[in-house]
UniProtKB/TrEMBL annotation:
Residues 331-346 have a biased composition (Basic and acidic residues). It comes from the Bacteria. Residues 104-212 form the MobA/VirD2-like nuclease domain. This is TraS protein. It holds the Pfam family Relaxase. The lineage of its organism: Bacteria, Pseudomonadati, Pseudomonadota, Betaproteobacteria, Neisseriales. Residues 22-41, 317-346 are annotated as: Disordered. InterPro entries: Endonuclease_MobA/VirD2. It comes from Neisseria meningitidis.
Length: 346
């Protein structure tokens, strides 16, 4: 097996996209995705080592009853189109703009697929494809088109771009909202899993690079990050001055740890440490094989990446907060004249 294939298998965790062939690894009657490019693992790891921006593919969580059925699709279409101001693009490349045209388009969806206004299950999957603010919005939009056409073949969908170049009230980082009907032309429903989302990120990164955008699609663990980013809902609550139950529980646990003088422990840190060691070992192995094959620049980048990952801070948020407080406690108090004395000694 080739070096690229070995790296792909390890990097992607044997996802079906790497191996999908006619008649193989086809889950039920679901249409297999187009294979990812051979070498995509090394491409993304090298990009991460060079600190290229990470792509974001996110499925926003919406628990409101207004997010299900045709009612939910209409609400989302209003949001994506900014009530008709932003054009929506379909899987066929058709552009639909204006409240009246969008309403008719959604009526056609409802009648063709028999979607009730209110249902127990979501009838559409809402996805956000995003990059940092320096990314050309037109390149991101084309990459989103290419990604959707390849990943959701057989599904009806629409998408819309939000960016400050079109409206100063929009964010500076370009992002595309993609709304995909859950059922395809064969009535098979989407059921994305965690590794599917990673595969989607890798595919989106491929399309961005094809459109001239340098980027990476790696997992946090590949970059030596042990902490999850703050939940968007919890962040919004914190910004409004509202403390969540989880935040209150964490503060209580930290307070108890400080009073007892015992650093908080996390039951999964040992396993996380082992996982990091395995990843660093894999990076070193890849670097050696690249060097032997004459790819010295790539080998050097992977060796450096292995060192950086192994040296990353390895602590939970609670442990970091505990260490911060302990450092403040141990820091000797400065006398009022200490700053003056320091100046006199210079």
């Amino acid at each position: 097996m080739s070096l690229n294939r070995n790296i792909d298998n390890w990097f992607l965790g044997y996802t079906r996209a790497v191996h999908s062939k006619s008649g193989s690894l086809n889950f039920g009657s679901r249409r297999p995705s187009k294979p990812l490019k051979t070498g995509t693992g090394l491409t993304n790891l090298r990009a991460a080592a060079l600190k290229k921006p990470e792509v974001m593919v996110k499925i926003p969580k919406r628990h409101s009853k207004n997010s299900k059925g045709m009612k939910g699709i209409r609400n989302h279409a209003d949001y994506v189109s900014r009530n008709g101001d932003i054009p929506l693009e379909t899987q066929d490349g058709e552009k639909i703009q204006g409240k009246k045209a969008i309403k008719q388009f959604l009526n056609d969806w409802q009648s063709h697929f028999g979607i009730d206004d209110e249902t127990k299950h979501k009838e559409a999957l809402n996805i956000v494809l995003s990059m940092p603010k320096a990314t050309p919005p037109d390149a991101l939009l084309q990459a989103a088109r290419d990604f959707a056409a390849e990943q959701f073949q057989g599904h009806q969908y629409f998408l819309g771009l939000h960016h400050s170049s079109h409206n100063p009230d929009e964010p500076e980082h370009p992002h595309v909202h993609l709304c995909v009907l859950m059922r395809d032309e064969r009535n098979q429903r989407l059921n994305p899993r965690k590794n599917d989302l990673f595969e989607w990120r890798v595919r989106f990164a491929e399309k961005l690079r094809e459109n001239g955008v340098d980027c990476a699609a790696t997992k946090r663990v590949h970059r030596g990050k042990t902490q999850k980013p703050e939940n968007s809902t919890l962040r919004a609550m914190r910004q409004r001055g509202i403390s969540s139950e989880a935040e209150l529980q964490q503060k209580l646990a930290i307070s108890k740890a400080i009073l007892s003088g015992q650093r908080p422990e996390h039951p999964f840190l040992n396993q996380a440490d082992k996982t990091r060691q395995d990843i660093v070992a894999e990076y070193k192995k890849i670097a050696r094989e690249l060097y032997v094959r004459g790819y010295k620049t790539e080998a050097k980048a992977m060796s450096k990446f292995a060192r950086e990952v192994s040296e990353k801070e390895f602590a939970t948020q609670a442990q970091q907060e505990f260490d911060k407080v302990q450092a403040q406690i141990r820091q000797p108090e400065k006398s009022p004249d200490s700053s003056h004395d320091n100046e006199m000694e210079r």
